[in-house]
Each structure stands twice: as structure tokens, then as C-alpha cells.
Amino acid sequence: MLHRDHPWLGREVEDTATGRRGTLRAIAPEGNSPHPVAWLIASGGGTEWTTDPMALANPAPIAPDALPAS
Q1: Is the pLDDT at 42 greater than 90, yes or no?
Q2: Confidence grade of residue 69 (pLDDT, cut at 50, 70, 90)
Q3: Is the full-model pTM beyond 0.70?
Q4: Does residue 26 form part of some domain?
Q5: Is 70 within a domain?
Q6: Would you say 68 and 20 are in contact if contact means Cβ atoms under 8 Å apart?
Q7: CA distances from 57 to 2, 5, 61, 67 (A)
Q8: Quick check: helix, strand or coil at residue 51?
Q9: Number of domain units in the chain
Q10: What's the domain range around 16?
């Protein structure tokens, strides 16, 4: 489905284009555009929004319980 991998998927990040924070859900094309966008959703839910992947910054730290088992 043209989704891209990203190390911050599932983490809360800042969208520097809007100043909002949300959980990064996917990096994927929007509509017929060949260029991928970042898909985010506010931590409390609500309407998903898109932004340029280059506008992502300041990911939340990975919680110890989210680390893979060794």
C-alpha cells in the first residue's frame, strides 16, 4: 500500500508546520500524489491530519515497556 517505514511510527511527535503534537500513524501517499505525507492523530483522538514528513520533530521518548524483549 506504499506505506513507508519510519523510526517514529506509533510515537507522539511535533508537527513543526502547525505546532501541534500527535501520534505518527503512517508515512504514505495522500490521494493521487506520488509524494508521501505523515499521517498524525491527536493523542486524545479526533481528526487525523497530514504534514510533510520533514516537519516531524521532537519524538516522545520510548517507554521502557515499549522496548522489544531481549
Answers
A1: yes
A2: low
A3: yes
A4: yes
A5: no
A6: no
A7: 23, 16, 12, 21
A8: strand
A9: 1
A10: 12-59
